[in-house]
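so the lab meeting is tmrw and i was supposed to have these ready like two days ago... anyway. pasting both below. for each one the top line is the aa sequence and the line under it is the structure tokens. i havent really looked at them closely yet so no promises
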Amino acid sequence: MNQPATVDDVLAAGRNTSLTTSVLEEWVHKGTPKQREYLHQILVAEHESRQDSRRRRLLKAARLPALKSLTGYDYSAVHFPTDYGRQALESLDFITHAQDLVLYGDVGTGKTHMASAPVAAACQQGIPARFYTTSALVMALRRAKDDDRLDKELASIAKNQLIVIDELGYLPIDTEGARLLFQVITNGYEKRSLVIPTNLEFSRWGTVFGDDNMAAAVIDRLVHHGRLLQFRGESYRVKTPS
């Protein structure tokens, strides 16, 4: 007569087993209603645990400077296009359709906050997303190129469905860095969403890329399936000094 399984036996079996449909179908029909309910609760709990682990892994990989949400966000400084609004932004619908957002305006008016929040929300929904400052992204690309692993780095970046490139125009970029940044932006065209906060109007993007034609090509791709959100107002840091 078989001995009843101990708690340790069950835990060991669980660690070593990945259930297949055929096994589930066989054993679910053998069980009593109470046993099926118990099995169902285990499977639901396992699924939720795996989803939670995935969300935490994605959030860690996103490299957010701070965890932000659009709940309670002050939209008073934001001017939306006539065909795009707050609800469309918060729904993350732009990620589904590989659309881009350019957040343009004054320093300290909430652009980075608005860019960070969809990254966190996407990760919570199991969508890979990544936050970069422009300088950090260019530095990572340059290191990858120097180490002869640029293709691998670009492939890693491309796994994200949403990419934020913050602080565009804050620091100068050399010719090589501009070309590498251009490659990331063009590689994502119609494949993934980009969010680019900047305080530079489009007419000055040539100073970032060091080439007006390259800048025009970037802008053309961003506006084709994208929206320009304008920020106007006094810096939050000035209004609420520490």
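ok protien two:
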Amino acid sequence: MNYLLLMLFVTIMMTVGLTMVFSTLQTTEVRTPAEEREEKSVQLPAPRKDGGRSIEEVLAARRSVREYADGLLTLQELSQLLWAAQGVTDDPTGFRTAPSAGALYPLEVYVAAGEVADLPAGVYRYLPAEHRLDRVAEGDRRRDLSGAALNQSAVGDAAAVIAIAGVYERTTGKYGERGIRYVHMEAGHAAQNIYLQAASLGLGTVSIGAFHDDDVGRVLGMNEDEHPLYLMPVGKTIRER
């Protein structure tokens, strides 16, 4: 009798367990790669092309700023900075805000966001053609990035850090070894655009080149063929507090 009761109990428990498993399988949502990509994608606000300050005013105001006030960057401000760096200015040709040898565009732009309104902390890659961000990694990586940059406080204290990397092969394939120089020239153009756009928006930034390349690449999840060239922390200026 006890044996029969035991067998009945085991049968009931197995039935309940299988029912729960099948129920879980039926309710688990299977997401397609396109849907998963959409979850990691952030469409940026359209860039503004009618700023109120003249280029002469902005050139005069441009400074390297290493200390930042508390305060979130807006998504519109980040959008504007990224567009200034590598945004598309002509859809048919794909021409961008910074000149590029042979229009080969070897630069990749990343953002380590920590204090940007409506943008979860994380590492993002900027996609110029679509003017959007693709999330590479979750979580605030500014402190890790600061460590990779010899513990420079500007990197850790900024609301966000824009990183410019170069893929040399895109340019050397056409121009040989001299293409490396062209990539560096292009990175300088993009960095100056960020400087001027930051000044136009009343924000502060500074170009940083002292860092461990491998560590920066690891923190930002860069591909092996991407070489970090600039870090540009961005934040509110002290005078705006």
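from a quick look at the 2nd one: Strands lie at 41-43, 88-90, 95-96, 107-113, 122-127, 132-138, 160-166, 203-205, 227-236. The longest strand covers residues 227-236. will dig more after coffe
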